[in-house]
Amino acid sequence: MEAKLRDELFQQAKEWVLQAGATIRRKIDDPLNIDTKSNPNDLVTTMDKDTEAFFAKKIRDAYPSHLILSEEGFGDDLSTMDGTIWIIDPIDGTMNFVHQKRNFAISIGIYHDGIGEIGLIYNVMDDVLYSAQRTQGAFKNEVEIPKLDPNVPLHESILSFNHFWLCENRLVHEKEMQRLVKTVRGTRTYGSAALEFAYTAEGIVDGYLTMSLAPWDIAAGMVIINEVGGVTTTADGNPVNMLTKNSIFTCNPCVQQEILEDFLIKGKK
Ligand code: 2AM
Ligand code: CA
Ligand code: CA
Ligand code: CA
Prior knowledge:
CATH superfamily of the largest domain: Fructose-1,6-Bisphosphatase, subunit A, domain 1
CATH topology of the largest domain: Fructose-1,6-Bisphosphatase, Chain A, domain 1
Radius of gyration: 18 Å
Shape: globular
Strand order of the largest sheet: 3-4-5-6-7-8-9
Order of helices and strands: HEEHEEHEEEEEEHEHEHEEH
Strand content: 25-35%
Protein name: inositol-phosphate phosphatase
Bound molecules: adenosine-2'-monophosphate, calcium ion
Structural class: alpha+beta
Oligomer: single chain
EC number: 3.1.3.25
Helix content: 25-40%
Keywords: Hydrolase, Magnesium, Metal-binding
Organism: Oceanobacillus kapialis
CATH architecture of the largest domain: 2-Layer Sandwich
Largest sheet: 7 strands, mixed
């Protein structure tokens, strides 16, 4: 995508994200209308749907040739990554939104012919926007995020993942995951994939590992983390497919090989 066009799209997307975030903040104490999806803990609210509808209308009015890949049903059915695609999660961390009224994000990635051009992750309640354009660096609000530290030894690293990795699971033997927990300096669980990507990009955690995420959970995060020198694969080290669900391991490259080979692939089921 041409740089000038990308910058115009970026400014427009940013304006809409900040506008949607302000609406959510204004309505944060309104009564919630909560439904469940795949299971009783998989929540969705009218705020998720209304926010996605807001973006879909704006995009279809302003850019009728663009496509939308999104969580709550206002997007298109896509079978290729051809063209310009807005990959949208209107609220990432819905459980946090419902239970905590914080620690959730709006996540938008814009891809052109399969290449991630723009990433926006907006921590709505903190009013912090993580953003990137391909080749232009990553930013936290207006401040450029430095490249990742190339010298983080595994035993001084902090990893983000949820506790299901330590229960019996279908991907990696629990014993290897327990050994990983005891090897690193610390672990964290934030409950928003988009924010966990942003925190990895910021270097406040050194990696984020997750069992199954959809494209809208990761699209923005992958653009942002690329810009600071981070790397993203599936949990067994393969390339991510943006049209399907994937397990995900995004991290500082200096801990990537050791975690993949000595723990995730070694313990793979
Ligand atoms: P969501 O809030 O947009 O659904 C929670 O650990 C993270 O996993 C969130 O980013 C959440 O996104 C995502 N996630 C993906 N699939 C999920 C599911 N079926 N149930 C709950 N969270 C899910
Ligand atoms: Ca959801
Ligand atoms: Ca999500
Ligand atoms: Ca969501």
